[in-house]
Amino acid sequence: MPGVPPLLKSVVDELHKCNRCGFCQTRCPVYRVTGLEASVARGHSARLRAVLEGDLPLDGALRPAISECLMCRACTAECPPAIETDRIILAARASYLAQRQSRLQRFIFRTLLGRRALLRAAARLLGLAQRTGVMAAVKLLRLFPWFQGLAAAPQMISAPRTFLRDRISSDAAAKQVHYFVGCAIEYALPEVGEATAQVLRACGYGVRLAENLCCGLPPYSYGDLASAAELAGKNLEVFGDAAPILTECGSCSSFLKEYPRLFPDASSARARAEALAARVQDATEFLVQAELPELRPVDAVVTYHDPCHLSRYQQVTRPPRELIQRIPGIAYRELPEADWCCGGAGSYALTHHDRSVQILERKMRNIAATRASLVITACPACLMQLRYGAARFGLGVEVLHLSQLLARALPAR
Asked: pLDDT value at position 255?
């Protein structure tokens, strides 16, 4: 296979597992919207096999196809040989990115995300632009592919005046946990982080805010493996003792657990990544085993949306539901297609806005069918997307992170 990028060669066995059965069509949210064979895992595999065989170039014409995948792993769950389509898409994106990467994306992934002070300043600037209406007025930015959904951004992304590290600080207790602060929680949803800390403290744990950077999932998802590995390497230096590492972001927890794949076998970094991954728990995994205080009743009809990075990447589905149902007064109703992607998928809601909204509409119809008054999830990207959907489609529901629901049920001080 001369001239074929090495990363694509690395997934050739995975590509050839596809027996063209089409089971992937039944659960792919993108295919259910487009109805196009090119949008489903079988189509992606066929196209990339053609690249491997020299019948199709890996050029700009291929970019829309490899960028539209949500990487939600729904197809893997339905696939008889369990083909890891997300690995295939990642290899294709990384191969394409190695040939051409925009200066803006390179700056974001290789500079902005690796410097917390700079990212903090950018978040403050974004918040100011949103509050003053400047963001809505900068229509020229919509010409750039990375900002296709900019017009909807003010309705989708909250811009608090103060961030999480301004609101809470580390504290001491006999039992300690490291709190890995995700970017979305830090800069968009600090109230969720406050709720998480409140619940952990009510369980008797001291919360130690980690001096972490971005987990690295955003550049990784786009195929910038070098930037992801650099961020991961810096985060490996942050956690010195053996205390558990917790986060209430399903995307962060899933990627932290996958850090070992970023480093070569038998390297010291790989060994440290494996040690760190073994200590990482999503907050729901940890809290379901913790000693919660006696909870106050919350009178509400509640349903739960499974984030892809929590349910399919980590197989964490029982703990969130168990925690919800421990709260007195709640009438829990299972959400139809609870594990279907809501269309948020990180920045997908901005870069593929129209398609994201079509996927979201199906989720909103299912939520409406439950007649729930409270929709709970465990991922900040899902939280923002579901809140946007509730407003856009006129659902009279409140959308909360599970940490917020638990904090609401804590006994009064």
From this structure: 97
